[in-house]
Amino acid sequence: MHCYEATHDQMPPAAVTDAQGHPLYSWRVLILPYIDEEELYKQFHLDEPWNSPHNLTLFEKMPKTYKSSFWSGDEPGMTRFQVIVGPGTAFERDGMDLVDLAKGGWKTILIVQSDTPVPWTKPEELTYDPNHPLPALMLQSKPVRFLGRELWRKHGYLVSFVDAEVKFIRDKTPESTIRSLITRGGNSTIDIAGLE
Predict the structure, then answer these.
(1) Which residue range forms the structural domain that includes residue 130?
(2) pLDDT 10s digits, 6-32
(3) Cα–Cα–Cα angle for 107, 94, 13, rounded to 5 degrees
(4) What would the pLDDT profile of 87-112 be if each residue is shown by its tens digit?
(5) pTM for the whole thing?
(6) Domains held by the chain: number
(7) What's the half-sphere exposure (Cβ side, CA atoms, 13 Å) at 89?
(8) Residue 136 Cα to chain centre, angstroms
(9) Which of 196, 130, 136 minimizes the C-alpha distance to 167?
(10) What single string gives the DSSP state of each residue in 93-140?
(11) What are phi and psi of 60, to 5 degrees?
């Protein structure tokens, strides 16, 4: 996303839309050239929606970047990495750049691991409303086999902040802290190191 912003002087929109404002496909398609997937990007018909007959043929070519390392049971082409849209979020509106986001605090959540997988090309993101419950963030875990033993990972989810730092957020993190991290501003006093 930072490379996209450096090239276009703004962050990618959560959803690419047509001239009438109808959503076509996700930011995950838009940043393909910046995650070494330019050839895949060139195969998309960018004037068609994610589920057009042609674009659906690319659905199962999801880059490994979008595959969750914590959850292996998802169907091919499904991802748990989403952005959060809504009042005060990093994706409150299109056209924001890193300067806009930095004014609100570098520790604003940019990308989060959600509880529910979505088609990676579909413009479907998590919606935040300060007056409603938090969106479904991934709180599940799965066992890992190590030296013949079954070990359980901690409950929680991965987030990437505006400054590109990635952290694992424990499920015991207070809701007020999560809300502060979702919205720009108000997160400068949070001890990020204490969240893992």
Answers:
(1) 2-195
(2) 999 999 999 999 999 999 999 999 999
(3) 80
(4) 999 999 999 999 988 887 788 999 99
(5) 0.87
(6) 1
(7) 27
(8) 13
(9) 196
(10) STT--HHHHHHH-TTSEEEEEEEEEEETTS---EE--TTSPPP-B---
(11) -80, 5
